[in-house]
Amino acid sequence: MTDFDLKADCRHVRWDRPCAPHKQRGKVCATCDEYAPVRHRVLVVKLAATGDVLRTTAFLPAIHAQWPQAKVTWLTRRSAAGLFDGNPLVDEVLTTDDAVTAARLATENFDVVLCPDADPEAAVLATMAKGRERRGYVRDAQGVIVPLGPGAQRWLAMGLSDAQKKANTETYQALVADVLGLPRDGVREPILVPSRCDADDVRAFAAALPGTGPLIGLNTGAGGRWAYKVWTRAHQRTFLQLATDAGLRVLLLGGPEEAETHQDLLASSRGRPVFDAGNCNSYGRFAAWVDQCAAVVTSDSLAVHVAAARKKPAIVLFGPTSAAEIELYGRGEKLVPEGLDCLCCYLPRCDRAPHCQALIQPTDVLAAVQRQLARA
């Protein structure tokens, strides 16, 4: 290949290695029928939390529709970078802890910079990036977050007002579509793609599990920010007993923080069809496990958005966070404790006893699971 053969504006170019069409199919620039010239360069700045990053991938189809033949670069934290493995709508991922990222933002030109968060760190990075157009939020020289449009103004106000947050009846997807100036009807499910190896490996493992009843995922954690997003351990134990008595099998889902919880639940369920998916899965492998479940029981956490990405029904247990903002895409149910005027408080902890998650009864969760299985 000569310098004149290289089509430098192609979306597939990686500069430090052969492109995928060349490596996988032997294509060369001069005759390549997979040439995809970049017409727009889009930067998305969405840093955290991991579940929020995943649900924001739901806007990627609308982004590509708005800016056809776009090369999409996503800036996030290293902890979320693995979410984009195999994502066909994101061309490259930059991370905040990489010194090269600052140099890239200072030297490259983007047609549009999208920052859906009023997070000061995200907004300052969106301001630093060289973009012809910006949507969402920036940060000015006084450190003030500036919303760029009425949708961004509304979302900012909602994030600062408990009353507006509680009164809201619209989903994150609808609200943030307005922030970014994208059509609401262009938003799809989040995107999380297991590798073929993970999918095949997990499928084989799940097929070998004993028993014949439907396999239900129980996501046991919810991160550390809001203590009462997590269903109580006692209710989880009771649910395992009720579910297995009803002929269901249960797969425990969680991360490293839930390892001790899983050991306890397995011990209390000895002799029952309760299995552990492990606590050190990559995001893709976690998605592969969700693929094996007929439904997933979870709090408002990453697992909700993984279930949405894999088109699985989710039975979601709510307390301190907004049930209205969560989009289930017509699959699953939201369970909210009754008789509380303090829901959607977003408090890390509270003194109420019993607290909101303790009021969601295992019998009600099992009934919701059975309704979803009947629908399927």
Architecture overview:
The protein has helices spanning 20-25, 50-56, 60-66, 78-81, 99-107, 120-128, 150-160, 162-167, 172-179, 196-207, 233-245, 259-268, 283-291, 302-309, 362-375; strands at residues 40-45, 70-76, 92-95, 109-115, 130-139, 145-148, 215-219, 249-253, 274-276, 295-299, 314-317, 332-335. By secondary structure, it is of the alpha/beta class. The chain has a six-stranded mixed sheet. The longest helix has 14 residues, at 362-375. The protein starts with 19 loop residues before the first helix and ends with a helix. The model has no long low-confidence stretch (mean pLDDT 94).
Descriptive labels:
six-stranded parallel β-sheet; Rossmann fold; six-stranded mixed β-sheet; 376 residues; alpha/beta
Quick gist of this model?
With 376 residues, the chain is of the alpha/beta class. Helices cover 35% and strands 17% of the residues. The chain folds into three domains: 1-29, no CATH class; 38-186, Rossmann fold (3-Layer(aba) Sandwich), CATH 3.40.50; 196-375, Glycogen Phosphorylase B (Rossmann fold), CATH 3.40.50.
The H-level CATH homologous superfamily of the largest domain, spelled out, is Glycogen Phosphorylase B
Shape: globular
**Helicity range of the residues?**
25-40%
SSE series: HEHHEHEHEHEEHHHHEHEHEHEHEEH
Number of discrete domains: 3
Strands, count: 12
Please mark out the parts with pLDDT under 50 across 5 or more consecutive residues, or reply none: none
In the CATH hierarchy, what is the class of the largest domain? Alpha Beta
